[in-house]
């Protein structure tokens, strides 16, 4: 039988799409809530983009750029995005759903990925002692600065996060127009 973290890894994207539909239905946005939410969505996208442009999956342990501050900048960016969308929605049901998804899906996935990284990269243990799992330190802990690569950004199709966020913000704006 598959472990929960393996199941969580497989269902996180389809569950995200299902949650997006529920989100659109439950959200009660205002112009102000969308602007406040976007103020967090944009930095979340930037963090994800910077992390994606540093990541050479399964080839090299990423320790530079945002990975010098947190071992999971992609998930941190997603969390910030989620908080922004929660604020934009003005719905406690959305907040509850986001909290549930984070603890039930993303934390087990993060733990499983760390098991893989420990097995794949011997230097991961030292890196993990220096850099926090999710919430970053003010100063980077690893000397490797790394260089952002647009090729890696495109390879990982991180632009889909920006397109999805723009579509959700547009859906919220349309919802305002429909419900007026």
Q: What is the CATH class?
A: Mainly Alpha
Number of beta strands:
0
| Helix content estimate | 55-70%
Task: Note the gap between the termini.
Answer: 50 Å
Structural class by SSE content: mainly alpha
Give helix and strand order, one letter per element, not per position. HHHHHHH
Instruction: Kindly provide the radius of gyration, computed on alpha-carbon positions and rounded to a whole number of angstroms.
Output: 17 Å
Features:
Four Helix Bundle (Hemerythrin (Met), subunit A), 69% helix, single chain, 7 helices, 0% strand, 180 residues, mainly alpha
Please, could you describe this protein's structure?
It is a single chain. The chain has a single domain (4-179), classed as Up-down Bundle (Four Helix Bundle (Hemerythrin (Met), subunit A)), CATH 1.20.120.1630. It has helices spanning 4-26, 31-52, 73-89, 92-120, 124-130, 150-155, 159-179. The chain has 180 residues and is an all-alpha fold. Helix 2 (31-52) runs antiparallel to helix 3. The model has no long low-confidence stretch (mean pLDDT 89).
Q: What would a concise description of this structure say?
A:
This protein has 180 residues and is an all-alpha fold. 69% of the residues lie in helices and 0% in strands.
Describe the secondary structure blueprint for this structure.
Layout: H1 4-26, H2 31-52, H3 73-89, H4 92-120, H5 124-130, H6 150-155, H7 159-179
Helix pairs in contact: 1-4, 2-3, 2-7, 3-4
